[in-house]
Amino acid sequence: MKTTIAFLTLLISLPALALDGAELLRKVDRNLEPESYEMYRKLVNIEPDGSKKEYVLYTVKKGRDKMVALFLDPPSEKDRATLRLDENMWLYIPNVGKPIRITSLQSVIGGVFNNADILSLDFSVEYNVTGMEDTPDGYVLQLKAKTAAVAYDRLTMHVDKKLLLPLTIEAYAASGLLIKTLRYSDIKDFGGGLRRPALLETDSPLHQGYKSLMLYAKIKARDFPDEVFTLNYLPRAKELR
Fold first, then answer.
1. CA angle in degrees (0–180, nearest 5) for 169-195-213
2. Cα–Cα distances in angstroms (integers) from residue 130 to residues 22, 34, 63, 127, 200, in the given order
3. Cα separation of 210 and 47, whole Å?
4. How far apart are CA 20 and CA 28, in angstroms?
5. pLDDT for 72-130, tens place per residue?
6. Domain residue spans in the chain?
7. Strand partners, 218
8. Cβ contact 194:188 at 8 Å
9. Which CATH architecture fits 2-240?
10. Which of 1, 66, 186, 187 could pair with 198 as two cysteines, CB 3.0-4.6 Å apart?
């Protein structure tokens, strides 16, 4: 009888634990940014010799799986635009013709950030929570990609317990190889109740000596018509600002 009761108790507790982890991940997503928004970012690639290359992007997102990023700087990249619909991505280059398909593991800017990092969806859209550890200072979430199309097979996310924001994320391939580490810092108030990291840094054991930064300047909730997130609209993406 005692064994039966213990077993039933375990069955009842397991879904609750899974739900807690999933709910925490959704809160992390919303604490990082609204579900639909516009934002400005500077991306900086740093070479082993210290030289830098910088890009400025204006990005808009709608719902869980629609995103457009427009290049503002440098002049050589101005008015290029990328579109993400779920796991499908395209790059539009003025005067080249129709948009071309790109993949999540490629990078339109080079450096350590890939297209999946630059056009990132909510974590809860792409990952299931498979483990959650409650530590004195925070939480450690183990995340598993929902499909093979996701750039990283597994993530280990360290979450600040008070702010419910990510501190570091280790991204792994299906083989278990560490691909990169992402580090969030410099908490700032962006207005509208949004207080989140203004800096994301990444490096990779696969690219020794290289480093990439993502600096956030403005993030604001905003809705857009579905037309914005189509291949036909990409040449007009500059009209969104």
1. 45
2. 9, 25, 24, 9, 25
3. 5
4. 12
5. 999 999 999 999 999 999 999 998 878 999 999 999 999 999 999 999 999 999 999 99
6. 2-240
7. 40
8. no
9. Clam (2.50)
10. 186
